[in-house]
Amino acid sequence: MTDTTTPQPPARRTRRGGRSRPPAAHARGRLRRNVGLVIVNADGKVLAGLRAHANGDKAWQLPQGGIEGREKPIIAAYRELREETGLEAGEVELVAERSSWIDYWLPKDWVKGRRFAGQTQKWFCFRYVGEGLPDLSRAVDREFEQLDWLDAPWLQEHVIDFRKTVYRKVFTEFRDFVRFSV
Q1: Which of 65, 79, 101, 109 has a 20 to 30 Å separation from 38 between CA atoms?
Q2: Domains in the chain, please, with CATH?
Q3: Strands (E), 41-182
Q4: Among candidate residues 35, 119, 113, the one with its CA nearest the CA of residue 71
Q5: Residue 62 in contact with residue 38, Cβ under 8 Å?
Q6: Strand 118-128 to strand 31-40: parallel, antiparallel, or no bridges (unpaired)?
Q7: Nearest 10 degrees: CA dihedral of 37, 25, 32, 143?
């Protein structure tokens, strides 16, 4: 018997942020395009927010947020800066941009009912030119209930587990600006 089925092309590899994702990753679901912000002060500490409606030291994270439509990542970064921390563009200086994107997947039990199974993130590093803590009451979103300047190693160790690898990569990339000695 002769096989008359039409040969199928190899599975298409999806382009995300300038690099391909393996076909196995595609089976987990879609990734949301997102920006992440490392904001450092003069002491090299990073600005982190304590997530509203979360408990414990795993509730601290760096500001981040979705890219809307065809918005350029740098525009999204400045928008998220204002929305999540209340900082305006004139209160920070862009010092670095990560050249490649970082993907991460949410735990499987978090994905049910969500549109996305994880995020692909473009990271930016800003230097805060002000004094003290930013005024969180100016934030548009109420994502954080508190802001604080934290040592990067502490935050990397205490962030929720699925973000640890992302933070390690980002802090390594921005090591010229982030303080690592505690």
Answers
A1: 109
A2: 32-173 (3.90.79.10)
A3: 46-51, 60-61, 64-66, 92-97, 102-105, 118-128, 144-150
A4: 35
A5: yes
A6: parallel
A7: -60
